[in-house]
Write the C-alpha cells for this entry.
Amino acid sequence: MDRKKIYGYVRCSSRDQNEVRQMIALKEIGVAERQIYVDKQSGKDFERPQYKKLLRKLDNNSVLFVKSIDRLGRNYMDLNEQWRVITKEKGADIVVIDMPILDTRKEKNLMGTFISDIVLALLSYVAENERINIRQRQAEGIVAAKARGVKFGRPPVPLPDNFYGVQQQWRERKLTLKQAAKACHLAESTFYDKARKFEKT
C-alpha cells in the first residue's frame, strides 16, 4: 500500500455486539490491531476520545479504513465536516470497506473527488434519516404500547404488610411521617406518595 501508514477505526455502542465483525474486516484488509482505534459510544457526534487520538495521527501519508460509513458517524453535517478535515486538512485517504466507491486513493482527479463527495453526502444523509426514522418508530411504538395498557419502567415496589395500619396511624397523627416511613422500611417521600395514592383510591 505504497508504504503508507495504515489505520483503522471501530465504533460501536456499549450494547452493540458488532465490534468483533468490524475488527475482523479491518484485520483482513491488512490493518494491524495496534493501529485500530475503538470507541464504544453513540455516533451522534465526534466527541470520542479514541477518534480524537486517531485524528492527531493522520497526515498526508496515512490511510484510514472503516467498515461502513455509519461507523465513522451518523450526523449528516458533522460527518461531511470530518470527511473534509481528514481528506483536505490532514491530507489522508479514507477507505470505506463496504462501499468501494468511497476510496479516496482512487481517481485523484477532479471527477473522482466530485463523485466521492456526492456519494458521501448521499450516504450520510440516508444514515441520519434512518436514525431519525428509528427514533420516530420507537416513539410511535411506545405510544401504541401505552394505549394497549403496557407499563414501562420498573415495576412498583409492593407495599409492606403493615402499610395500611401504619398509614392509618399516620393519618390520625399518632405517628410522624418519619416514624411511619421507618416502620414500613420506606423512604419518607415514597411512604408519603403511596399514602396519598391510597387515600385517593
Notes: The chain is about 50% helix and 10% strand. The longest helix spans residues 110-147. The two ends are 74 Å apart (CA to CA). The mean pLDDT is 81.
